[in-house]
């Protein structure tokens, strides 16, 4: 029964998008003899390189197998928005293909949010943990970031290669192993993004520790957790780490560190201060 409902919803969605498509914008003459708004079934089938019968069956909710290629062709022919395309794949019961690499730029409003979160450390990363935006509180944790090159402003690079990395986390080994596992997951999810292989090769060349951990074949996902850090000025501080996805760009995430109530507080000066333990 759920599959029947899904097929019915798929057909209804395609019909609605078909009827909402202007024939002239798709290269067809409007003509006075059209009895229905938008594209005819045979016109959409032609645009998507499908047979009229096959497309008609899809729209009627018939129990037929639909491939990624067919769904992609229909999405392209109907000029669907990213949200509509994702919905079409969901209704077809198919996984959304990996998104192509996106520019490193961050939405200005998201960048502003990162700055406004100060004195709470915050930053924005892509799937490869490149630092796309960060505030002064986070830069201070790492001993400064602006003076580093774009390649060096990467969480994995800072952890495994830079001198500050091993001294940042109390349990550095666990953090390093988790990061290596997340990189392996990202490479599987985004196999066509050259940045992933570039980062992997760079880390393998620069860090023996990374090579050892990479050989373990471990995988890891992100989950909210308490991080025990050594602040360069305030000493030991415990921070709760939270990750939020950007709804407009699924390849960017906002990471925020919140003071753990029993171990750290925001001092009147606006900086993190360690509480007596």
What do these coordinates show?
Residues 263-277 have low confidence and may be disordered. The protein has helices at 2-19, 41-47, 52-60, 68-77, 82-91, 108-116, 136-141, 155-160, 164-168, 172-189, 194-206, 208-214; strands spanning 122-125, 131-134, 225-231, 235-246, 249-259, 264-266, 272-274. Strand 1 (122-125) and strand 2 form a beta hairpin. It is elongated. The longest helix is centred in the N-terminal third of the chain and has 18 residues, at 2-19. The protein contains 12 helices and 7 strands. The strands form 2 sheets. A 5-stranded antiparallel beta sheet has the order 2-1-5-4-3. A two-stranded antiparallel ribbon has the order 6-7. Helix 2 (41-47) crosses helix 3 (52-60) and helix 4 (68-77) runs antiparallel to helix 5. It has 277 residues and is an alpha+beta fold.
- Estimate percent helicity: 40-55%
Beta-strand segment tally: 7
Low-confidence stretches: 263-277
**Rg, Å, rounded:** 25 Å
**Tally of contiguous helical segments:** 12
Alpha carbon gap, first and last residue: 59 Å
Shape: elongated
* Rounded average pLDDT: 86
Major β-sheet profile: 5 strands, antiparallel
Alpha-beta content class: alpha+beta
Concise structural overview:
By secondary structure, this protein is α+β, with helices and mostly antiparallel strands. The chain contains twelve helices and seven strands.
Please specify the SSE layout and strand pairing.
Elements: H1 2-19, H2 41-47, H3 52-60, H4 68-77, H5 82-91, H6 108-116, E1 122-125, E2 131-134, H7 136-141, H8 155-160, H9 164-168, H10 172-189, H11 194-206, H12 208-214, E3 225-231, E4 235-246, E5 249-259, E6 264-266, E7 272-274
Antiparallel strand pairs: 1-2, 1-5, 3-4, 4-5, 6-7
Helix pairs in contact: 2-3, 4-5
């Amino acid at each position: 029964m759920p599959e029947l409902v899904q097929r019915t919803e798929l057909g209804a969605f395609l019909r609605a998008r078909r009827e909402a498509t202007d024939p002239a914008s798709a290269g067809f003459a409007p003509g006075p003899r059209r009895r229905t708004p938008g594209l005819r079934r045979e016109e959409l089938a032609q645009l998507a390189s499908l047979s009229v019968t096959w497309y008609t069956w899809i729209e009627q909710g018939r129990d037929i197998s639909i491939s990624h290629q067919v769904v992609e062709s229909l999405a392209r022919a109907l000029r669907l928005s990213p949200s509509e395309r994702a919905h079409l794949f969901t209704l077809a019961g198919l996984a959304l293909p990996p998104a192509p690499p996106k520019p490193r730029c961050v939405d200005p409003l998201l960048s502003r949010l990162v700055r406004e979160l100060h004195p709470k450390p915050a930053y924005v990363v892509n799937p490869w943990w490149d630092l796309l935006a960060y505030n002064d509180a986070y830069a201070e944790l790492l001993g400064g970031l602006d003076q580093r090159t774009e390649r060096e402003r990467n969480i994995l690079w800072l952890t495994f290669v830079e001198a500050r990395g091993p001294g940042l986390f109390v349990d550095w080994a666990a953090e390093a192993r988790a990061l290596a596992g997340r990189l392996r997951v990202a490479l599987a999810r985004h196999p066509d993004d050259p940045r992933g292989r570039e980062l992997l090769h760079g880390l393998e060349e620069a860090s023996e520790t990374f090579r050892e951990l990479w050989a373990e074949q471990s995988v890891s996902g992100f989950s909210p957790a308490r991080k025990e850090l050594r602040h360069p000025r305030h000493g030991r501080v415990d921070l709760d780490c939270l990750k939020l996805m950007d709804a407009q760009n699924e390849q960017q995430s906002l990471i925020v560190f919140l003071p753990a109530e029993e171990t750290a507080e925001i001092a009147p000066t606006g900086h993190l201060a360690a509480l007596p333990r």
